[in-house]
Specification:
Strand content: under 5%
Number of strands: 0
Shape: elongated
Number of helices: 12
Bound molecules: iron/sulfur cluster
CATH topology of one domain: Endonuclease III, domain 1
CATH architecture of one domain: Orthogonal Bundle
Distance between the termini: 14 Å
């Protein structure tokens, strides 16, 4: 049986994108092919209720005070931890407090400030160009639509979903990062691995008003209990609902730990 992860029980959800140039989710809103199975919908609702009760404070883990700061932080979080981004952004926002300032930044100075987040040259280019477009095309304000956001450099559907849901309370889709994808599969909410298809399945199962918080809840549970390598199924609040109860990975089995990999089930 998998043991509980020693990781802290943070109740703050991540918005960490999975790739430097955002994600492969298409710009067009995902649409389900067919209505979701009613029984699966009921199970999904119970999953949401249990997670919401367990993590009543789940929210975006990227520190921000306005849509501009959230957009910048989300772009920086590609291939980087939220914790690292939160260490970088205070100085970054002091140096460039708004899109105008960021648009006029010196590339070398900007790169130096964000270097520790990785892929810093590409990120710096995207940040500066996105800021320039916001100033030029949107009067210096972060746009509020999926189409306008995904027209900005470095912003694909997942990043736009983060900004729309958390900064504007506009729920256009579900953020699908590595945690959301893993939990959605383990919980039987999708059979897909492609983020666009996972998002489509989740959108069909949960009411629109829950889409943003749903991602935070799944991410928090993925960090605290249903980890990739060592899921704590025994103590999981969802274990009575989960078809993958007892899931193990090569890294979590005693045989694997002893260097003798036995038969395992990937999550
Ligand atoms: S029962 Fe196990 S696999 Fe299922 S959600 Fe809980 S920790 Fe994850």
């Amino acid at each position: 049986m998998a043991k509980r992860s020693p990781a802290s029980r943070s109740k703050r959800a991540s918005t960490q994108p999975a790739a430097a140039k955002a994600d492969p989710v298409p710009k067009t809103p995902a649409r389900p092919d067919a209505p979701a199975d009613p029984a699966l919908k009921r199970r999904a609702a119970t999953i949401y209720q249990r997670l919401h009760k367990l993590y009543p404070d789940a929210r975006c883990a990227l520190d921000h005070q306005n849509p501009y700061q959230l957009l910048v932080a989300t772009i920086l979080s590609a291939q980087c931890t939220d914790k690292r981004v939160n260490m970088v952004t205070p100085a970054l926002f002091r140096a460039y407090p708004d899109p105008q300032a960021l648009a006029g930044s010196e590339p070398a100075a900007l790169e130096k400030l964000i270097q520790s987040t990785g892929f810093y040259r590409n990120k710096a280019r995207n940040l500066k160009e996105a800021a320039r477009k916001i100033v030029q095309d949107h009067h210096g304000r972060v746009p509020r639509t999926m189409e306008e956001l995904t027209a900005l450099p470095g912003v694909a559907r997942k990043t736009a979903n983060v900004v729309l849901g958390n900064a504007f309370d506009t729920h256009v889709g579900v953020v699908v990062d590595t945690h959301v994808a893993r939990l959605a599969r383990r919980l039987g909410l999708t059979t897909h691995t492609d983020p666009a298809k996972i998002e489509r399945d989740l959108m069909a199962l949960f009411p629109r008003k829950r889409w943003t918080l749903l991602a935070h809840l799944l991410i928090t549970h993925g960090r605290n209990t249903c980890t990739a390598r060592n899921p704590d199924c025994e103590h999981c609040i969802l274990n009575s609902l989960c078809p993958k109860f007892g899931v193990t990975t090569k890294q979590s089995t005693p045989a694997a730990k002893a260097g003798n990999a036995g038969k395992t089930t990937a999550g």
